[in-house]
Amino acid sequence: MQTLFDSQPLWEPSDAVKQQANVTHYMRWLAEKKGLRFETREALWEWSVSELEDFWSSLWEYFRIQSSSSYTTVLSERVMPGAHWFSGARLNYAEHVFRNASETRPAILFRSERHELVSVSWVELERKVGAIAHALSEMGVKSGDRVVGYLPNIPETVMAFLACASLGAVWSSCSPDFGTNSVIDRFKQIEPVVLIAIDGYQYGGKSFDRRSVVAELRHALPSVRHTVLIPYLSGEESALPEELADIVPWSDMLRMPAPLQYEQVPFEHPLWILYSSGTTGLPKPIVQGQGGILLEHLKGLVLDMDLKAGDRFFWFTTTGWMMWNLLVGGLLLGATVLLYDGSPAYPDMGALWRFAADTHMNLFGTSAAYISSCMKSGVEPGALYDLSHLHCLGSTGSPLSPEGFQWVYEHVKSDLWLASISGGTDVCSAFVGGSVLLPVYAGELQCRMLGAKIESYDEEGHSLMDEVGELVITAPMPSMPLFFWNDSEHVRYRESYFATYPGVWRHGDWIKVTPRGSAIIYGRSDSTINRQGIRMGSSEIYRVVEAVPELLDSLIVGVEMSGGRYYMPLFVVLREGVILDDSLKATIKNRLRSAISPHHVPDEIHAIAEVPRTLSGKKLEVPIKKLFMGIPVEKAASLDALANPQALRYFVNFARTVQERREGTTA
């Protein structure tokens, strides 16, 4: 697979940056305390994945994990699934948050479309979490019970989660922009006892009343004994519809002050439940443990992302994306977490950049799709806003194109560390990403994350170097799912990750590991185009197509036809006023032919109004392919899991034509 990545780095860390890096401090500590010396970041990674027990036990000591009982074994056995970590240890995630309480810096800074900048002190955060935990206990919530939040990215959501964690209860959340059925599909599986919800929210300048949805949720979730309502849209506890007459107002949750107490739970006690996207079936409820997430997030944020106590840490996310959970993890090391609720494009594309300037943000986390939108809109963050405090920009969600890398250094900040990362909800962390010790190359993720034994496999399970293959994990990680809820025999769990390579986690991405230890992600392997034996990642095509000035977005799909034929149409979203004529089609095809190869030229190009996407912004490549293969829309995609379900109508109709072609009834 041909690539066009520059050989010269866009950024290199200075000696001062390297010396001040958290991971450098950790390596010095290893040398002093353990007699282990590593000259390079790559050597440290090799040790972290070959000596798993020594690596993770060193982190336990380095981060001074508080445990009411000592562990007897670091790792029971190097098997997947079935590995058990730190047996015998008892701890509490929330306790590790509040040991970092500061009197001089805020715990949370928050802004939304409806609220000016709000600061929440550590004292206020601890006081309110204690009151909420007490109120939940009074409701009968105990360790292991599920509490769910139908909530946006606001301080109250963080408070409710931490209160649950302190009790040993299990948290799960959905963003209020999820469709009603989508929320029910998720929450009903885990039988929550308390529902905490908002009355409504604002997005893009428009208000959305959600009180009727809350009533539907209560009706559909018979396990819920208490419903708590936060007056987020109205700003006050106003009159409620009859079906919500017995609801608990949020003010009642804060009425009784109580000191925070921390239920000591086993290392593998459930902390929260996340969900797969649900685009192709019932979302999988992914259960992750208190101890595994605690260690993984400390490792990832401190050693991989170089986050420090007192840093101001932001990721643009909703509560329905794992990045919200990672963002809250910043509190574990005493960082100030920055929350934003609203559209990144309201009132204009400068909204988040103004937020960065106003909060003196140090780490700005976002998605590759947002960076692409900024590029298309022509916004100039570096020229318009004071970003002098910003030292790192994180990008995830999908592969960031080389042009995206270039844009950041040309239009945001030339001395910025750009950390493109890739991981998954499945481990609530990154597999490959950034290191402040290494140079940044356009289109590349700098390295594999510590403790994550990432390899590229061919179809036979052979490890590849400098070749595109399946992204696999060949050694267990503490934050891997404990189990899927209601999957007692681990059938769905095994099918999801271990069906292709027994005992090896297949993640579903195409990856190439370069000789220098960096990585390139080429998109989802289960949507990969295999044309005439040539395997193609969709992101490589998008990179070229979406650089055409007349285009805003695109979707590529490949499907096997009868008689060994292969059909690969390209769908494009045009800028206003642009017509998809023969000249523009020729331009697109010529660019693909010259930039990549003739194999990457589509059979046809069609104009569409919008690309269908999941709620987390991923393009619906796999469900569209399933539609083209004749699978009914209700089985190919869950409409409630989509950000723009109306966009599917075009493809449902188009699929009829594809079916005729597949069956050979049309030319």
Keywords:
GMP Synthetase, Chain A, domain 3, 667 residues, Rossmann fold, five-stranded parallel β-sheet, disordered N terminus, alpha/beta, 36 strands
Describe the 3D structure.
This protein has 667 residues and is α/β, with parallel strands linked by helices. Among the domains are: 15-100 and 337-479 and 488-522, Rossmann fold; 528-662, 2-Layer Sandwich (GMP Synthetase, Chain A, domain 3), CATH 3.30.300.30. It contains 22 helices and 36 strands. It has a 7-stranded mixed β-sheet with strand order 5-4-17-16-18-19-20, with helices on both faces.
Topology summary:
Elements: H1 15-20, H2 22-34, H3 41-50, H4 52-62, E1 73-75, E2 85-87, E3 90-91, H5 93-98, E4 106-112, E5 118-121, H6 122-138, E6 146-150, H7 155-167, E7 170-174, H8 180-190, E8 194-198, E9 200-203, E10 206-209, H9 211-220, E11 226-230, E12 248-249, H10 250-253, E13 265-266, E14 270-275, E15 285-289, H11 290-304, E16 312-315, H12 322-328, E17 336-341, H13 351-359, E18 363-367, H14 368-377, H15 381-384, E19 392-396, H16 402-411, E20 417-420, E21 422-424, E22 429-433, E23 447-448, E24 454-457, E25 463-464, E26 468-473, E27 483-484, H17 491-497, E28 505-513, E29 519-524, E30 529-531, E31 534-536, H18 538-545, E32 551-556, E33 559-560, E34 566-567, E35 569-574, H19 582-595, E36 604-608, H20 621-628, H21 633-636, H22 648-662
Parallel strand pairs: 4-17, 6-7, 6-8, 8-11, 11-12, 16-17, 16-18, 18-19, 19-20, 35-36
Antiparallel strand pairs: 1-2, 3-13, 4-5, 9-10, 14-15, 15-27, 21-22, 22-23, 24-25, 24-26, 26-28, 28-29, 30-31, 32-35, 33-34
Helix pairs in contact: 3-4, 6-7, 8-9
